Amino acid sequence: MTSNTAETKQAGSGTVRLAANQYGKAENHVVRVYRDSARHSIRDLNVTSQLRGDFELAHTEGDNEHVVATDTQKNTVFAKAKENGIESPEQFLLGLADHFTSNFDWVTGGRWAAEEYGWSRINDHDHSFYKSAPEIRTAVVMRNGDRDIVISGFYDLTVLKTTASGFVGYPKDKYTTLPETEDRILATDIATRWRYNTTDIDYDATYKRVKEIILETFTDHYSYALQHTLYQMAEKVIASVPEIDEIKFSCPNKHHFLYDLERFDIDNPNEVFHAADRPYGLIEATVARADVELDERDWIGIAGFC
Amino acid sequence: MTSNTAETKQAGSGTVRLAANQYGKAENHVVRVYRDSARHSIRDLNVTSQLRGDFELAHTEGDNEHVVATDTQKNTVFAKAKENGIESPEQFLLGLADHFTSNFDWVTGGRWAAEEYGWSRINDHDHSFYKSAPEIRTAVVMRNGDRDIVISGFYDLTVLKTTASGFVGYPKDKYTTLPETEDRILATDIATRWRYNTTDIDYDATYKRVKEIILETFTDHYSYALQHTLYQMAEKVIASVPEIDEIKFSCPNKHHFLYDLERFDIDNPNEVFHAADRPYGLIEATVARADVELDERDWIGIAGFC
Amino acid sequence: MTSNTAETKQAGSGTVRLAANQYGKAENHVVRVYRDSARHSIRDLNVTSQLRGDFELAHTEGDNEHVVATDTQKNTVFAKAKENGIESPEQFLLGLADHFTSNFDWVTGGRWAAEEYGWSRINDHDHSFYKSAPEIRTAVVMRNGDRDIVISGFYDLTVLKTTASGFVGYPKDKYTTLPETEDRILATDIATRWRYNTTDIDYDATYKRVKEIILETFTDHYSYALQHTLYQMAEKVIASVPEIDEIKFSCPNKHHFLYDLERFDIDNPNEVFHAADRPYGLIEATVARADVELDERDWIGIAGFC
Amino acid sequence: MTSNTAETKQAGSGTVRLAANQYGKAENHVVRVYRDSARHSIRDLNVTSQLRGDFELAHTEGDNEHVVATDTQKNTVFAKAKENGIESPEQFLLGLADHFTSNFDWVTGGRWAAEEYGWSRINDHDHSFYKSAPEIRTAVVMRNGDRDIVISGFYDLTVLKTTASGFVGYPKDKYTTLPETEDRILATDIATRWRYNTTDIDYDATYKRVKEIILETFTDHYSYALQHTLYQMAEKVIASVPEIDEIKFSCPNKHHFLYDLERFDIDNPNEVFHAADRPYGLIEATVARADVELDERDWIGIAGFC
């Protein structure tokens, strides 16, 4: 979290000072129905609003003069779903950022986040839907004074390939027992977030395109390791989408262990696997456009990794 | 659970007796790859095996002479995934039942259950898949001596209609505050299980058909209450599939409350809703073929409802 | 679920009939504060209310004349928390049963359930508490006409012993690879439910006593298998508490596998274990007072097992 | 994540470059038994090991020459549980950091994390335990070259006070509907992490002391807002423990809404509450020793907040 004016004050005791802080209402689950014609449509978002700015006295003195109530933030989220509509999660969050920073002098920024759940029509019906998206879409807007950071992403897109994956050539020490293999199952839950370098973008179309690139890349090469595959996904996203400067992945290596059936005189040529839960590999990487300098603080608070 | 011979014995103390019991290995997560051609396919099952029979002495005396180790049951599940293959979850579980009851005299029955997770090809790729099914498929086989009960189902199929649903005409007492409405969102997570009257059936094709009937029925009528909708689903399933004698539903009424925006002078004509978590309505019903007598004990232990 | 009058009617189509059914409001999370003196106390319950009776027309015709709204049931739960108080979960549920069956002619029974979360005072403070109970207490009341069944229990009480447990003497077949052991870790999450033969009982005191017996029994013997241990727990509960006729356990065998450190020339004399998640053993048993006849239908719908 | 030498290289394409990255094995669940006397004791840790350093070629070329297998990291965790023992989670993680950075030249740092689950003896038994801790203890060690950062904490310590809490004096706008109150329930799940300025410390004793300070502070004042209470907790921890320079809290305001019973002519003087799930307030703050300069990058990747 970036510094704000509140941090420059000193608490009464002189021993401590308030540093980064934010507060708000989390997980406002708003469903917006568009019913202008007989063919309805919906957006289904879980929205968190958190404000940053001068909240020193609330902490040090219990003086709430600056504390825009989290209940007020909740009401605002639902009101804006009607007033502004939900064109995309990112656009909706930017509208919340505008509202709070323009209406309260001491609110100099904040963090607004959303998850979106994807629905499809049942048999192309006008007003009946089922929850269909395998992944959960995410969006985060962080505003600090004049600067906006918009990060989009998704998680829980589980993918698996039954071959064209191996793991060889790694160092061996006294604790190494893993045998090399040139044919294994590779499976992961893709969690990714990318940072835009502009807000002049069609967020929904770009989201769709990034997801397609990532899925297509998963299929198109022999994987020497999950690192190798994630890097290629990242490279193709940045090469294809000029509005993205940086992308992160945090992906488990979901081990599928070949079950040892030889003990029972049964051959098992990569056919029967035990899908294990824990422990799992965990591969995390950030890939950036080559000529862009990163400010790692930008990412604080928006990811469970890196 | 039905009685077994073990129950007729008396524990040493004379105070108590062992009644229904079963044991085994739960949640064996087996992934079966078919790779006979370049176009691979997979079945992804989470299998639980539990045996019933004469296990009296294990309980009362700590004598494990009859206790087929749960570790052995696990090995068997994985071995049978190769030996028998997985044509359908139901067929696979019937094979496990045959194995255990034919190999151990004192195993007179048991309960075998599976969840199946559905995958689709990524861009029709030969060996790359993503986890796509919105619902989790379930199957249970219960064997008691010569009798098999096969129950199929699914859960977590979330559906929502934005109109054509209301709730009126209910009794009012001093604790009633709910206003009547003729236009609301209806949403639920469908959980259902049905019982077959035969094992001579194409389980995969029938599963697909039942799911289609249920989804289609969700769209095809004005719903006076979730009870009304579930009953119609049940009726159509039984009318259309002669091999099904009985079907159960256990479905939450996932409330979508119209957000009160009038307080802010904003009109909200069924457009902005708060999707609440708890509490929720919970509607559970069994519907049976009219001329079939039910034995409610058949269902013990296979459902979280009724 | 036991039969009710509704089940004897026939649906219009003649093809199907409504069998067992129940509906209501699930997971009403009520916190009741007692503040008659400066020393406050709390009860923290998650309550589900479901009604049974004549609800045929709601299902078959969409006629809600009999449907006591689930919203009304919710209001009633919270109102009764004030009107009746919460002396114990069981007493509270019995009060709900009385209310609904006495106020609506067509409500002939139902199922009322609660979970209770246990809190302790922070440093014996008058009004500050922390959530302290390792287990979740459960209570279920099922009423069918004149008959009440009261079932109490708990789950998620995780216990572990580092020795005095083994597993030997089990049958070996071609799929058996487990080595016998006379010293292993035994660990489980205890889930249990017991049925009272009376409602004239101090539910809180009895709950405390049953839990103590179960914990004490876990420690007091060499365990030949989890079955052996559960049976002894059951036997002692029934021998010690005349008001209990029947008790069930559904307990995972939470495997702690000795980690193979010999591969690294490190001795591991039962010191370093891998606590595995899945698969796990699953041991389920019902133990009854010797001279009591069981009606297995009584248990339908109150347990995830047997 | 801090920069490493790998980041200065350029990927082959010239379009992108690898920035921060780490990988390893997550959630190795190790149970360490001490059984040197008849009175056994246990430590129960869930350990994640992730390495940082020069892993460029694995990403860009699929060359695994530097990739210490995650399976090897797993084996090492279990081996070190025997070789080094588990004196405290922090000491154990520092030992892992030493191992990996001293054995592999290109491993210049990493992130090692653990959760610890607390057990108590059943009736003071020598070798029987139950899982008793209401909170989950956490520890993180981040090493970057010569610099170590050690962060300890816990989460899921749920606390509640039935009075001595209010919320007044906040700004009102057109979306504000919350009434002021001087007497409400205050409840939260405490999640906190603190940073030590030394590794010369008794981690277990300090953990115990910090937890006690936090709990005691929760009880000792009238709370004007959760911000006010968290700040006081932080202030007292830093004032009391000179080895701590910085502490963070991320705490939900778990709303307990007074249930409106007036509609039923029932008085409800702060006695019956609905414990709501979502949305919830979310209050996050960092408090630092007054004269210590913070490097916010130190926290990247170790917390879900700020």
TrEMBL record, chains A, B, C, D:
Catalysed reaction, written as an equation: urate + O2 + H2O = 5-hydroxyisourate + H2O2
Pathway(s) where this gene product acts: Purine metabolism; urate degradation; (S)-allantoin from urate: step 1/3
PROSITE patterns to which the protein is assigned, alphabetical: URICASE (PS00366)
GO MF assignments: urate oxidase activity
Entries under InterPro entries matching the protein: Uricase, Uricase_CS
Entry keyword annotation includes Transit peptide: no
EC number: 1.7.3.3
Enzyme class: oxidoreductase
Entry keyword set: Oxidoreductase, Purine metabolism
Function: Catalyzes the oxidation of uric acid to 5-hydroxyisourate, which is further processed to form (S)-allantoin.
Family from the record: Belongs to the uricase family.
PANTHER family found in the cross-reference section: URICASE
Listed name of the protein: Uricase
Species this protein is from: Enteractinococcus fodinae
Lineage of the organism: Bacteria, Bacillati, Actinomycetota, Actinomycetes, Micrococcales
